[in-house]
Every structure is written in C-alpha cells, then in structure tokens.
Amino acid sequence: MRGIQCIIKKELKRVFGDKKMIFSLFLLPAIIVIAIMNLSSSLAKGKQDEIDEHIPSVYMQNAPEDLEAFIKSVGVEIELHKVQSNDVETVKQQITDGDADILYVFDEGFREQINNYELGKIPNVSVFYNSSEDYSSSAQSKLAVVFSQYQQSLLAERFGGIENLTAFNLNEEDIVNNEKASNNFAAMMLPYLIPMLMFSGAMALGTDAIAGEKERGTLASMLLTPVKRSDLVLGKIISLSILASISAVIYGVSMIVSFKSMLGDMGADELTFNFSTIQIVELLVLMIGMVFLYVALIGTVSIFAKSQKEATSYVSPIYILVIVTGLVTMFAGSSAPETYKFMIPLYGNTLAMQGILKGTITGAQFGVSILGTILLGVVLVGAM
C-alpha cells in the first residue's frame, strides 16, 4: 500500500509541481474549447445575419402588374428584374453560378386567366432557384410565403372573401418543454465531445507516464526499487485516473458553459440546462468509470511501446474508435436501445451518457454499462 502511495504522490507532484504542465493539461484545453465553441456560434450567427440582410435579386417573366406592389405591401424587400423569354436560359445559368437568386416564369396572360377563371384552366408559375446557394435558398423560403399570401388575396378577390373557401381554422400552439429540449440538445452533443476530449487528455498523460518514462530511463530505475510491480501499476493507474478525472470535469464544465453561450447566440435564451442530483451523480460515476477504462487501455498499449511517440501511434486507433462510437450515438434513432448494448465497451458508455442526459436510462442499463466498463478495466490492469 505504501508503494502505491509513493507512486501516486510522485505522479501528482510531477504534474502539479510544474505550472506549465498545469496550464497545458487543464487550463489551455478549457480555454480552447470555450473559444472554439463561441467562435463557431458567433461565425454561424454572423453568416445567418448576412443572409437575412441580403436583398434577393428576383427575376420575373410575364409577372402581373400588381405583384411587385403586393410584395412591398407585405414588407419583403427585393431587387426585381423583368426578363424576356430569350433571357430565361441566361438567368438560369446565373442562378446555377450563384450570380442571381431566383427566377419566376408566369404563363402568358397570367392575370387575365385569373380574372377570367374557367374550371380546369389554372395558370402556372415556374420557380427556379439553387438550393446549394444560401442567398437563393433563403429567397425561395421568403417568397414562398409571399406567393401563398398573394394566392389567398386573389382567391378572396374572386369569391368575395377567403372565408368562403375556409372549411375550418387550424390553431397551432408549440408547447415544447424547454428543459427537455435543452437536455436533448446536450444529449446529442456531449456523448460525442466529452469522451473524445477525455480520451485525448488521458492519452497525453498515459503515454508520457509509462512509455515516456521508459524512454527517459526512469521506469527502469523504479523497477530496481523495493516497490512491487503491482504497486507500480496500481499507483500509475490511480494517479492517471485522478488527473484525467480532473481534466474530464474541466472539459464538461467548459462545454456546458459554451453551449449556454451558443444557445444565446442562436436566439434560444429560453433553453436552459437543468439536471437533477441523480443525473449529476450518475454522470460523475459513469465518467469516473470511463476514465479508469481509458487509462487502463492507454496504459496497456503503452507498455509495448519503446517511446512516447510510438505509444501515441499505437493508441490512435482506439482514439478513432472512441470518436466513431460518439458519432454513432449522436445520430442514433429515438428508439430506446436494448440493454445488452450498454455492455459493449466504449459504445455502451456513450449510450449510457446519452440516456443519463435525456433522463431515460434505467437502473439495469446504468448498472450494465458500469459493470462492463469496470470489468474490462480490471482485466487490462491485470494484464499490465
């Protein structure tokens, strides 16, 4: 036991005794996470604002005389261009190239056909836009609403009021649970981001503590001391788990802070994260188990490497697997996964984290996930 304490003390002193290492391992990642998330949300908001402020360049052939005035009356600003039939193909090419936004081609005598309505003879309006261009797609969305209103006004003019064509009124009310919506948003993103960052932090610590010490020759010196090999392994595992757990908590807090800022930039201030005490405890227990498994995996692989660089290359495929399992969970369907899936190493952890954040995980699923994680970790420590 004393040997384990000595190893733990040595590893913690090595990290916390170096201000540069504290900054690079704990503070810098949190700063980077918050900065990147805020920058991405700010850039996305700026891009959306630019799209919203853009005045669509709208091209029309055979447009009715009253349409331009109607568009202005509903408060939509456009840059209108009237085109002739021989210019239609040119405008289509401009839309394809992103130099024009949208083209409307009305049947000849469109307004006369509306005024002289005959059953079965309905005039057409052809719309050409480019969904791969932001300005064009936005113009189509805005003007689709305008043309729907214009159609209603023409029907009202024809039948003396739109109510004569209305069979019933449909009143919609969005009664979304903001707390649940926020937690679902977190449940989609965090099971992908947190394990990835946790493994990244554990990988930097683990490869240096084992392969790095082997490369520097300090591990050989430690093996010559009276400290048992089992004490050496357990001391390394426990100290690395402590350091990686601190890193995981910092990552988790910085992510939640960043998400709140992102929701504000997206205009969704009403969405707030609110987790119960049970959810927080379950999440902490799960993250501790995940850290133990990550450290055990990295430590076992690092034993076979002669240098830290070599160990990092060996661990990289596992890191990719962690990222892939997070992505699979992010885009999983809404149906509840079977309990046995929570037993699958790495993947079961992301499923459990998602279930905890959503508040849908059962006791059996949580227990199976923790049990599978701990058992695999113990086997790996025994192998070390």
Q: Secondary-structure element sequence?
A: HHEHEHEHEHHHHHHHH
Number of helices in the DSSP assignment: 13
Q: Calculate the terminal CA-CA distance, rounded to whole Å.
A: 18 Å
Radius of gyration: 31 Å
Q: What structural category arises from helix and sheet content?
A: mainly alpha
Strand order of the largest sheet: 2-1-3-4
Strand count, sense and barrel status of the largest sheet are:
4 strands, mixed
Can you describe this structure?
By secondary structure, the chain is mainly alpha-helical. It is 69% helix and 5% strand. The chain contains 13 helices and four strands. The chain has helices spanning 2-16, 19-53, 67-73, 88-97, 110-115, 134-159, 178-216, 218-223, 229-265, 277-303, 308-330, 347-358, 363-383; strands at residues 57-61, 79-82, 102-106, 125-129. A four-stranded mixed sheet has the order 2-1-3-4, sandwiched between helices. Helix 7 (178-216) runs parallel beside helix 10 (277-303), helix 10 (277-303) runs antiparallel to helix 12 (347-358) and helix 11 crosses helix 12 (347-358). The radius of gyration is 31 Å and the shape is elongated. The mean pLDDT is 84.
Write a concise keyword list for the protein shown above.
384 residues; mainly alpha
Question: Which helices and strands, and how do they pair?
Answer:
Elements: H1 2-16, H2 19-53, E1 57-61, H3 67-73, E2 79-82, H4 88-97, E3 102-106, H5 110-115, E4 125-129, H6 134-159, H7 178-216, H8 218-223, H9 229-265, H10 277-303, H11 308-330, H12 347-358, H13 363-383
Parallel strand pairs: 1-2, 1-3
Antiparallel strand pairs: 3-4
Helix pairs in contact: 1-9, 2-9, 7-9, 7-10, 7-11, 7-12, 9-10, 10-11, 10-12, 10-13, 11-12, 12-13
